[in-house]
Design goal:
alpha+beta, 29% helix, seven-stranded mixed β-sheet, three-stranded antiparallel β-sheet, single chain
């Protein structure tokens, strides 16, 4: 069994390492674009290197899949794989906003076994273990139980015309933190309609699911992890009773955009 206390200690230190670079505390930061519209900063790489070293030492048999590391398909041969986004929500991080988190998940048999989110600028530690529930700062999480789709709380800046029966709430840049909002009953629905990567959602999806939320791709299909192509089209994290309505609402758009 993995040492869960040691794992949390490693993830917390990764969060503190990022916080020491965060412009929100007045620190200078070197940034650039990996591709147009895809920012990265020196803190991403430093945290990634730290986590790879420490997590590999904690569980040497596990594979590795991270946003900031070149993919090695040897991970496909592993029974366990670390799934890491060293700073999810880099745009908020660079701008000195609080909507970012360090995301770490351990994948077993294509499903998240352990998930941890560290959001040090918010003093938040989120965690879950499959079958054992989800927690934020030591308090058990209970997901949204909303039963009516219209009026559902969605973390967005703007709503398209066809969705203006929904209710806007705060939107952190980190998709992981948005999903965690559903786990903590701060939102009822999170939806994306684009190709995204496993490392963005692995930890948060487990946290939401263990809190009682429904979590799927944009078409309502289960999510799988440690795939050869580590992408999925879209994400839905919702109160269970409105999940089918969310799939129906988005079906035409998802089919067209995918």
């Amino acid at each position: 069994m993995i040492d869960s206390m040691k794992l949390e200690q490693i993830c917390r230190e990764a969060g503190h390492m990022a916080l020491r670079r965060w412009p929100g505390h007045g620190h200078d930061l070197k940034t650039w674009e990996k591709s147009p519209g895809n920012p990265v900063c020196e803190a991403d790489l430093e945290v990634d290197a730290f986590l790879r070293r420490e997590l590999n030492a904690l569980l040497p048999a596990a594979g590795w899949l991270s946003e900031e590391t070149a993919d090695d398909e040897k991970r496909l041969e592993k029974g366990l794989t670390w799934l890491v986004d060293p700073i999810d929500g880099t745009r908020d991080f660079i701008r000195g906003r609080t909507g970012w988190a360090v995301s770490v998940a351990l994948i077993s048999g294509g499903r998240p076994l352990i998930g941890t989110l560290i959001a040090p600028a918010r003093d938040e530690v989120w965690s879950a273990t499959a079958g054992k529930g989800a927690w934020r700062n030591g308090e058990r999480l209970r997901a949204s139980t909303r039963t009516r789709f219209s009026g559902a709380r969605v973390p967005v800046h703007d709503l398209p015309k066809e969705d203006r029966d929904l209710t806007k709430v705060e939107q952190p840049n980190s998709i992981a933190l948005r999903v965690a909002m559903v786990a903590n009953d701060e939102a009822d629905l999170v939806a994306t309609l684009r190709w995204g990567y496993e490392w963005d959602i692995g930890a948060a999806a487990l946290i939401a699911r263990e809190a009682g939320a429904a979590v799927t791709d944009a078409f309502g299909a289960p999510l799988a992890y440690n795939k050869r192509d580590p992408r999925a089209f879209g994400l839905l994290a919702t109160a269970p009773a409105i999940h089918a309505d969310a799939v129906d609402r988005l079906a035409e758009r998802a089919a067209r955009l995918s």
